[in-house]
Design goal:
Blueprint: H1 2-82, E1 86-92, H2 93-104, E2 105-106, H3 109-112, E3 131-132, E4 143-145, E5 150-156, H4 157-173, H5 176-181, H6 190-202, E6 214-217
Helix pairs in contact: 1-4, 2-4, 4-6
Length: about 230
């Protein structure tokens, strides 16, 4: 009887060892499967990251190419603007204020609307009040007041280049950060105004010695064609 019990106990132990070994092998297979699944997951993530990196690089290359192309076209516009002796720019005084302050800085309000001069020297920048990024050197008489808040400003080619540069930088050349930080509510006008100047310059024909510069009207309501 003792031998039978011993044999039964030994059989039970063997069975337990077999079950434990089988369980170990199963857990080992599960761990290997988990490791393989994790490895495949990491490979897939690496492929996705690599693909995203390639897409970002391609997008950056396209963006740089587009920006370069746009800037080359912009340089052509500046080259054309630089050859203009002066342009008689007709627009609303608010439009000129917006253009002038963005391009040159802050100055006396009397200068921005300096068509009517009650006394000599009233027009023109006030040195103590003006903070120019660039002094446009507009002498008295180069801003003529018209009806309904319209006015004509004689702008030199050099000043026209400065205006176009500021409009382009704000509308197309700025980084997202600079665009967000620009709180000017009229910033959205820079793109349309720039395109209006650009179209006018592209269609501009060379003048003659007898002509006094060129004219540009920034008002679709006026029945006036640029000369």
């Amino acid at each position: 009887m003792f031998k039978a019990l011993a044999a039964q106990w030994q059989a039970n132990q063997e069975q337990k060892r077999a079950i434990a070994a089988e369980k170990w092998e199963q857990e080992k297979r599960w761990r290997e499967e988990d490791r393989e699944e994790e490895r495949q997951k990491r490979l897939e993530e690496a492929k996705q990251q690599e693909e995203q990196a390639r897409e970002r690089a391609a997008e950056e290359a396209r963006r740089k190419e587009t920006t370069t192309s746009l800037y080359r076209a912009h340089l052509d516009v500046l080259d054309k603007a630089a050859t203009v002796s002066y342009v008689a720019l007709t627009c609303h005084e608010d439009t000129w204020t917006f253009l002038a302050r963005r391009a040159f800085g802050a100055w006396s309000p009397e200068w921005l609307t300096s068509a009517v001069q009650d006394s000599p020297g009233q027009a023109g920048p006030v040195a103590k009040q003006a903070t120019f990024k660039k002094n446009p050197n507009l002498s008295p008489g180069r801003i003529t007041k018209q009806d309904n808040g319209m006015q004509t400003i004689e702008v030199s080619g050099d000043n026209l280049v400065t205006i176009l540069e500021e409009l382009w930088n704000t509308a197309f050349g700025r980084t997202g950060y600079l665009a967000i930080m620009d709180t000017d509510p009229n910033r959205g006008a820079c793109g349309p105004l720039y395109r209006r100047f650009r179209t006018w310059l592209e269609d501009l024909e060379p003048g003659t010695v007898s002509e006094r510069g060129h004219t540009l009207v920034l008002d679709e309501r006026l029945d006036t064609q640029p000369a």
